[in-house]
## 1
Amino acid sequence: MRTGGAVSEWKVIPIAPGADVFLSPDPAGVSLGNPSIVSLPGGRIVVSFDMTGPGTKHLEGAKAREPVSGHWLQGKVLVSSDKGKTWTSKVDFPFHQAQLFRVGHTIYLMGLAGTFRIMRSVDGGESWSKPAELAMEGDDYVLTPVNVFHANENVYLVVMKRIAGKNGPVLIPVVFRAREGTDLANRKAWTVSEPCKSFAEFVPAQCFEYFGIQSSPDSISESLKQSQKNSLRRSDFQLDWATPHLVEIIDPNHRWRDPRGRTLHLFAETHTNVRNVAAIASVISDESGGMTIQNKAAPSDMQKYLVSMPGGHMKFDIAYDETSHMYWLACNPCFDTMIRSNGSYAARSVEQQDDRRQLLLFYSPNLVDWCLAACIDSGSSAKDWRHFCSLSIGGNDLFAVCCSGYARPGTRGYSDRITFHSITAFRELIYSR
């Protein structure tokens, strides 16, 4: 908030306007997506992202084709040694939806091209191994760059697996766990969680009624018929979840803390036609090392399936800071969730309830109560996007990387650049504990 001057001049101003990491070489034909970031103890920052679209096939460097769609895809890794002022390209990789993470002094990059592919760097991102194929049973996965969790000398990744549903393909979360120090390119190094239910099966139908969700699993087919008459979209009625995150409750006084240390918590983006709602589940490890994804029990012993979370209806990112003992959340807010599907609504490039122009930062001591810390960055119009953010904490700084898109006459908003956002002394934003 600005101080001084007339009250009419006060407004929230972005705290970390984006600096360009990479611009699309062909904005009309190459779209950028799935940014991921990792910061190293020495100050170096490593960023990855992928490129898709019809122009991708003309790009130089390693490329691949997505087996189902046949679309060309390519990813890039860039590094910065001056806190994001300049960036140097290090490698092109032939897969997409890639996630960066660090185990000790080794950086891994794991993504998809039909099956999982994984690369590693032992010199801070300067050089990379060739992609190794990591085949998993029934490969049909969706991997979105989110936090990679470390606990008890293990590394945990959570992805979505696509399965057949009653009204088309649906997603179920799957947790992968591997021992740190093992060969992560070896399928035998990974333990996979037991099969989970789809979102419509996981959450009882009565929860939708009382939570204000406007459609239920049984009403989807009829809603889709009506949507054809009303020119609405299928996604307005398809109940699902995506982009799951794994976190651990650290505070021993937290009501959800598992004193045995066997429970992690899964938070996922929800597609329910209600904004600022995330799904919650427990990931429980048994004595034999197996993992199951179960409903979360509230302190009353009643089952908890949904939780209020800023931006829980779109891709968000959570980072835990061991110094402040706070969880930090980057997300896109809602602007107008009650606008009708006609008139000016149809003229916009995206629904106003899924407005992507502002990227906000929140913090929480418990993953339930969130305080607004700052506006990270903001576009000037609904087509001016700042979304799909990934976070990394480096010393006293919080780094973010996101997809940014800029409006052009006659086009919908789209991502034509990757931007970097640096929030120095970010812990000073905490005003309530």
## 2
Amino acid sequence: MKLKNGWMLVPALMLGLFVTALMPGCSVGDPNDVTTVANGSFSGNYVGTQNGVLVAHNTGNPITSLTVSQSGNQLQAVDNNGILFKGTIGDILGNGGTSNASSSGATATFTLTGATTAGQSVTITGNFKASGSTATMTGLWVEPTLYSSFSGVASITPVSTSTPTQTATISVVANPSNEGTVSGGGTFTVGASVTLTANAAAGFTFTNWNDAVTSNPRTVVVPAGGATYTANFH
């Protein structure tokens, strides 16, 4: 009877917390500290930290590791016994969460459901917390007649936040086209230096570029969006 009463107390407390969170005026955190989970991944092989096991107490075979795969907010995990668990992950919170899950201090809540090797249904709720390229998985393991703590650590791959290289096209034109030739045009990285050259045909002379620059050859910096330079001949 004592175990039953102790067990019933847990959902009652959880319900009280849930209702309190919904009361008007209650703060649920700064929305500026939240980013969508798509910005990071906690995928990895989580190995137990409690004397070599992930779950302190469970029916069936011991749980020593859990291989987690994340796609957006969807989670899939397979334990060392080959049992599949499925669930979801919440938004990433905390320091560094705006870039990726592996940023130091980034955390996220999650839920997984599955079963033990003894056929008992299981719900796992808890948190992922990252520190560099390492993530810790902690929370509560709940079976119909048993609940327990669990903890595991995994190496995770940082999500790239580098900005893709931006390119632009430099076009070079001869005016008139029969009085000379030009070179140096093409597609380049924005910000790169490019040399443009105007070569007058026999009997003709290079005058200037369309922006009144008379240097030849000349060096230009590739702007975002590209540019066209016309060499004038006469």
## 3
Amino acid sequence: MIALATIWELGWNTPLFEFDLWRFLVPEFQVDGGLWVTPVSGIVAPADFPLYERATVPAILEELGVIGVFLDQDGDIPLDEFEHPASCVYLTGATSYPILPYKRQGDVSVRVRTPAGAGGPWSHQIACLALYDRQVKSWPQP
């Protein structure tokens, strides 16, 4: 099971707009565990989209019960060296809300760097990079 989790960008964005940024990523990369988000906004996703809102990041982690892979520019393991677990939840923070403080014992943090290193990508873009990396590493090697 692969899931995604993030924090809504409530300071300058609306969950409904941000949802549209995530909605194509989940089916495209076959994220069978759905998109988990905090805090609860009350938006209603289409019936065929697996959106789960919970009050806190720890509540999401507890309910999913799988290893957390925290994607952050300050993570411990470079993405290109990371071996993706079979089951996990990939977690990204929001611009104003870092994700690493929620890391538990047994979870891992992955460093996702960009060429400029200015911390500019949105959380759905960072998740896309990690999911693409996962896909490429699963392809048969010649």
## 4
Amino acid sequence: MERIIDAIELRTDVVKVVLKSVPDSPGTVGSIFTALGEGGFNVELITQTGAAKDLCDVAFTVQAVEAERVLDYLRERLIQLGAKGVLIDKNLALIVLFGAKLSTTPALAGRVFSLLGRLGISVETINAGLMTLAFLVPKKRAEGAVKGLKELFGLS
């Protein structure tokens, strides 16, 4: 059988940051990530919710060691960025699946998330690209998730 997933990475050194009720208008997200870059933060996984009443939530991960600094930095800039609040979750881990055939394999995401469901592991903040599938899971369940995924895809 041809390998679909080449590698699985587990990162427990991240936190999820959510900017709540951000104006959903052109340039706002650019302003957010420009400000974070100017603050010296390396942003990793990014997601945005759909707009409701012209507002959206923007979520991203940063390194856990930056958690308090990014929180303070964003609180000072909430009005400037147009956000109504900021939340942080320190109890998540990032899992990334890598594979050149990931985007051309039907039902791959279904297989991944069905397995995690059978294991009783909830999933947050999913992000997919042509060769990656990344998502957050509860930190205390992350190693079990990776073990199950490695078994599913025949990785040692």
